[in-house]
Design brief:
This protein has 89 residues and is an all-alpha fold. It has one domain. The protein is built from two helices and no strands.
């Protein structure tokens, strides 16, 4: 009886550790790749706005707003992904 309980708890610990570990790796991956993608997108937006002769001050403000918005979306995406992974159990 005790050996059976220990085996069940070991299975539970392994399953939980695997789920948590994968979530942590996914979050680290998004935090590593996300800012890089945001930088690439911001570069494309800056390039297109500079070609349209937008004032430098306006360009700076737009770039800041876009960066903040994309970072907020990154955080919301990570939280949503974690929530969706929890619902799948």
């Amino acid at each position: 009886m005790i050996a059976h309980d220990i085996s069940r708890y070991q299975d539970l610990i392994v399953t939980t550790s695997t789920n948590v570990g994968l979530k942590i790796l996914a979050a680290i991956g998004l935090w590593a790749i996300g800012p890089w993608l945001i930088g690439r997108e911001l570069g494309m937006v800056r390039f297109s706005l500079e070609r349209q002769k937008i004032a430098p001050t306006t360009l700076c403000h737009l770039a800041s707003m876009i960066t903040v918005a994309l970072n907020v979306l990154l955080v919301i995406g990570i939280q949503t992904m974690t929530f969706a992974a929890d619902e799948g159990r």
